[in-house]
Design goal:
By secondary structure, this protein is an alpha+beta fold. The chain contains 11 helices and 5 strands, in the order ααββααβαββαααααα.
Length: 256
């Protein structure tokens, strides 16, 4: 490993605040000479934690439009453990083409490579790099730096988990089986009406279960409750090919 990269990773591994990860990821982006580098995770308290170099306006637009629910990169990474080269994904659908076109206009670049990160208690994060180089150069770049990028991604995730562990809430009260069912379905991305239909209960009854679960978990809203339930190992979201990953931007609209 190059001495400069080793030093950058040592600095990253000593980070004790989430803000320090932002400094590290920008330094790593410059080291690899790519257009953008990003790490994104949903914290146990329901907040979205991300660091990186994407334009803030694009990040906000992505969240506001709920693009995570239709982003082929996220869907692919949620279902697998291996890195994903964006060129290998299916961008033919209209929603996917929209995300791709707007990402290009925002300056993310024509190339992308994302490493999925699956941690304890359902933790899920993404580590992505993007650039504007041509296909042959991109292929050579990935082949040359694949191992170093994996090391960077897992070091970031390790530090984020360690830092987050210091912020975890106190142990929560146990949920009833029905409350677990409700939160599990919401975490899978279903709207309240869909959850009520699947569980064969009224939306009024569903709301009562949600409010009860929120109270037990000390959560400020539904997304917060689902996040705490996942972090505490109270629910497990396996997901399927058609299920969106839990607890990312865009989930709030369905859950609230």
């Amino acid at each position: 490993m190059q001495a400069n990269l080793r030093q950058l990773l040592q600095t990253l591994d000593q980070a004790t605040e989430l803000s320090a990860l932002q400094t590290s990821i920008l330094a790593l982006r410059d080291h690899f000479g790519v257009a953008h580098m990003v790490y994104h995770w949903v914290c146990a308290d329901g907040g979205q934690f991300g660091c990186g170099s994407y334009p803030p306006a694009w990040v906000q637009h992505y969240v506001d439009q709920g693009y995570l629910r239709i982003d082929p990169v996220v869907a692919a990474c949620f279902r697998r453990a291996q890195p994903v080269d964006w060129k290998t994904l299916d961008w033919s659908g209209k929603p996917a083409r929209l995300v791709r076109a707007e990402a290009l206009r925002a300056g993310l670049g024509t190339q992308g490579y994302t490493i999925p990160l699956h941690g304890p208690q359902g933790q899920f994060a993404l580590f992505s790099i993007t650039d504007t180089t041509d296909d042959p150069r991109w292929a050579r770049f990935i082949d040359r730096h694949r191992r170093d990028l994996l090391l960077c991604a897992h070091t970031f995730n390790h530090r984020a988990i360690a830092i987050e562990a210091q912020r975890l809430p106190a142990p929560v009260k146990p949920l009833s089986p029905r409350e677990v069912d409700v939160l599990t379905h919401l975490a899978m991305g279903l709207a309240r009406a869909q959850v009520a239909q699947r569980l064969e209960i009224s939306e009024h009854t569903l709301r009562a279960y949600v409010e009860s679960a929120r109270f037990k978990l000390g959560a400020s809203n539904t997304v917060h409750a689902v996040a705490r339930a996942v972090a505490g190992g109270l629910i497990v979201t396996g997901g399927t090919a058609r299920d969106a990953p839990p607890l990312w931007p865009g989930r709030a609209a369905a859950a609230e």
